[in-house]
Amino acid sequence: AHVVPIASLEQIEQTYIMVKPDGVQRGLVGEIISRFEKKGFKLTGLKLFQCPKDLAEEHYKDLKAKSFFPKLIDYITSGPVVCMAWEGTGVVASARKLIGSTDPLQAEPGTIRGDLAVQTGRNVVHGSDSPENGKREIALWFEESEIVQWTPALASWLRE
Ligand code: UDP
Ligand code: MG
Fold this sequence. Notes:
The chain is α+β, with helices and mostly antiparallel strands. The protein has helices at residues 6-9, 21-25, 29-39, 53-59, 69-76, 91-99, 112-116, 131-141, 155-158, and strands spanning 14-19, 42-49, 81-87, 125-127. The chain is globular, with a radius of gyration of 16 Å. The two termini are 14 Å apart. It binds uridine-5'-diphosphate and magnesium ion (MG). Residues 63, 68, 72, 102, 120-121, 123, 126, 129 line the site of uridine-5'-diphosphate (UDP).
């Protein structure tokens, strides 16, 4: 078994993935989690959560000036979401590829949005757009005690 030195823990890439309220209401939680799980990344945090308005606004603060911002906040707070933290080398960009384009009609078949959604305002899932935002968003949505460090038994079958 590998023991990860504390110093290198900071370097491990992390992404914040969230099943949005439409994904939860439509019963797509298992399907969406399954795509990341099968890819081979490591799940380190998972919870069902009702997002308060101030958290939604902080999460999407870069979009505050956009005309769709109020509707976006209503959407994200309209019902429970499923919050996830995933980690692994290259996880941020790879998760964005698994998720597909923001507009589900432009998203390739085989991607989550390409397969499961039809509109930008109901695009079922969020994924961080950079490693920096991955760390920022995980810190925003999770308590430190909710993040679990563990060594998957299959690690040596996923990476040589
Ligand atoms: N969004 C929207 N209308 C737009 C652009 C974005 O409702 O014209 C919503 C959509 O839910 C999107 C979220 O705002 O997922 C964040 O936008 P961003 O550009 O960051 O897209 P993402 O990173 O989610 O693909
Ligand atoms: Mg984004």
